[in-house]
Amino acid sequence: MKKGRICLILSCLLVILAFAPMVQEHLNFPRIKPLAGVTTPVTVPKLTWKNIKSGHFQRSLEQYIRYHYGYRPITIRCYNQYLWDFYHKTNTGSVLTFGKEGWLYEPWFVEDYYHGGTYNQKKDSLTLARALNDEAFRLYQLQHILEEYGTLLFVCQAPGKDIVYPEYLPDDTISNRPKILSAREHYENKFEELDINHINMEQWFLQMKDTVQFNLFPQKGTHWSNLASLYAADSIFHYIEAKKDLQLNQLIIGKPYIGAIRKPDNDLEALLNLERPLKSLPQHYAEVRVEPRRGAVKPRIIVIGDSFYWNLCQQIPMDSLFSSSAYWYYNSTVYFDSLHHSTQELDLVDEVLNADVVMIMYSSTQLYKMSNGFSQDLLIRLCCDENDIEAGKQAALRHIKSSPKWLESIEQRAELYKIPVDTVITKEAENIFYTNPHNYIPMLKDSIPVKRSTKTEQYSIQ
Hints:
By secondary structure, the protein is α/β, with parallel strands linked by helices. The protein has helices spanning 2-27, 49-54, 56-68, 72-87, 107-115, 125-148, 161-164, 183-194, 202-209, 226-244, 267-270, 310-313, 348-353, 374-383, 386-401, 404-417, 421-435, and strands spanning 97-98, 104-105, 152-158, 198-200, 250-253, 257-259, 283-285, 288-291, 300-305, 324-329, 333-335, 357-363. The longest helix is centred in the first third of the chain and has 26 residues, at 2-27. The mean pLDDT is 90.
């Protein structure tokens, strides 16, 4: 009798174990913490005879099951923990670099520190310098044009982890690679030369590094620490107040204290997807609040930038400081704007000329992408009507057709992708026009273009 009961229990356990992954996969019960990192979504293709005959359905289904079976996050974390404990290895590939004394870095920060990141841009130094100069010149033009309408434009350069804590970087393992060009150094010189509104926090962080009792960058994270970003935000708000001659409500930062690690201070460690957290240095935090101040105003701000801004907007109640504070992430996805989800949906001129402040914030390794096309698009929309834009595109088209080698490469691409040659030429012309509009619209070469588009006529000049 006892033996039969044991067999029954074991049989029930076997059935539960057999069907538990299926239940978890389809019902998502119990709910399991997903794996960190970015993965490409895998979907099951349509079940058709053509897909079965070609093997496409079988391969796609196998790939789908590989990424969607029940309890997958747990099995992946357990396997990663085994690799880490026994072999000190990870599955992070090229997205994570181990520095000294347990410090973690993204590999492009290491590349930027030792070699200026130039090699990742697939450009020679002269071409890259020309692109950086063009962007700086457009920002100079926009700064002066927007001043006419009462909008403050400025750049905030956030320091990278490699700049503030180079002592923990792994040794340079790439030989015979000179540091050709640094975007952060090039922009700083150019901004000073053109008198472009900007805050460069690099020197401030370096000076502060040995005088504060907390880390400005977390040991296991890539962005400035949550606490350091609060002090950076305070400086940004004071800068806005001085430049706009106004007073914001007061940001109050409490006394620092050691607390459990919060996101995103461990965003690099999260990529390891381990079962147990790594041993980390103590991390400091502070409570923050905004107090009303007599005579304070709440301006409208637009922020265009990379992920460093998340540390600010996720800790500070921006709606207590600004009437609106839209965040255009890499000038693509729109956050904190209930009406829009993409910058493609925006009326660019209307958004910017109705704003009081536009801040462009990029960290050191992302400066090569400065504004992500925002400066080109806005300059065109502020200064050009549709006939000017069409004339510019036609000039770009003539430029392409005047180069036999260029046409030959386009014809080869058209043949490879089975696209009509005229379609590829038109797309190429639009691309080079929007990338460097000043090359095809002569008036944009002026220091400060005089002409304004008819769209701007409805906005008052201050």
